Amino acid sequence: MSTANIIVLCSFAAYMVIMIIIGFVSSKGTKNNEDYFLGGRNLGGWTAALSAQASDMSGWLLMGLPGSVYLAGTGEVWIAVGLLIGTILNWYIVSARLRKYTIVAGNSLTIPSFFQNRYRDDKGVIKMVSAIIIAIFFTVYTASAFSSGAKLFATLFGNSENYNTVYTIGLIVAVIVILVYTFLGGFKAVCYTDFIQGLLMLVAIMAVPIIAYVALTYNNSFSQSLIDSGVTNPDNYLNFLKNDDGSNVSAVSIISNLAWGLGYFGMPHILIRFMAVKSDSEIKKSRKIAIVWVIISLAASCLIGLVARGYLIENLDATASETVFIRLIQQIFSDNGIMIFIGGIFLCGILAAIMSTADSQLLVTASAVSEDIYKGVKKKATEKSALNIGKVAVIVVAIIGFVIAINPNSSIMGLVSDAWAGFGSAFGPVVLLALFWKRSTLAGAISGMATGALTVIVWDYLPLVNGATLYKATNLYSLVLGFALALIVNIIVSLIAKKPSKEIQDEFDSIKSIEI
Known about the structure:
By secondary structure, this protein is mainly α. Helix content is 76%, strand content 0%. Helix 3 crosses helix 8 (163-216) and helix 6 (111-119) runs antiparallel to helix 7. The longest helix has 54 residues, at 163-216.
């Protein structure tokens, strides 16, 4: 192993040790499920904001999105626009009301338990269905984070001969470290580490493209640099409505990319942060911090892809494009030991993005298994046994995610896209109607949830058109259709079903006037 690799490895090791220490310290105050899964509903504004956005913007932010922009140009930034709109709407429309409603509705600790309490589902059907959907799609989502971590290690420490071996070793290391601090400290450990990781991600994602851009344009124009790197027509590459080859970005592509914003309304690992904030005033503070963070991070992520196209000596193909940020850091910080160490710190920003999402996904899945499945089946379950079941679930989901991510050729963007569509379609319409429509019923919620989840599975996984999936045949993102159908079905079935009880309606009306 080269001296440069040893220096980078040391910075990684130091970072991981710090995360584990935080997990150990956080475990001291974890006494019950509310502590483990919601941190006692005591998150401050800064921690809630950075934790929510860090857990949202996974390795996808520093690997998947820059890779897409690197290959196709600014025609790919519509995803970032959609995500920004979704973030703003989620914080302003959903956050405060969800926090209040989950407290009033039986002090709900998870999204599935909120659905059950909101609709007075005595049989626990909606909670069980929700928990199963969470377990399925979060396993895929967790696999995407693990794959990001493995690709980071393989790109840094591997070569063409041993890439697959190093990928597997990196995958094992990433899984173990994330498991340790999540297993020990629960929600507090996840949020405190996410806070640190959110800051580190922000520094890395801002500093690296700015440094590269200044170096790239010092004696040359940016357009000429793109031409020198093989871009045939920079005007097309930098046009929001053009693809790199000069063709127009299709309306289907723009709609599909903007639709990513709909996914926010159904993301359990983000919604759970809203539930954990300690006061209404902290919610208001959090939303401002979160929106500024996401504007900067998404803009910088897109800039990474554009600048790297002109800066990198080596042209990357579609398979290697998701490593663009890693290679950019390697090329910039390569002169001496100090520069390599600084580069190692910035590479920890990628590790932070990966870990901050994987830990949240594991914890939400564990809470679904513990609170919603185990307690639903075993009515007299103790807090201690439920907590232990939740911790076992963390390990099981991590193992399944490991198996899914074991293939070095797995696409980070593809895995994230599937999970994002699944959650957005299944939970998004239910969350919105549960919070803002008094007439919404249990039958409507269950029907809409099932419709959304099944639509995504059929659209993305079943080869129904000449051996191809409907997504491959149409290029329409499954979230567009899944969200729309789930919303329509929920509304129609709710209108057909019997009106909610007066108790449910009175509880719904009380939320607006409550200050918590």
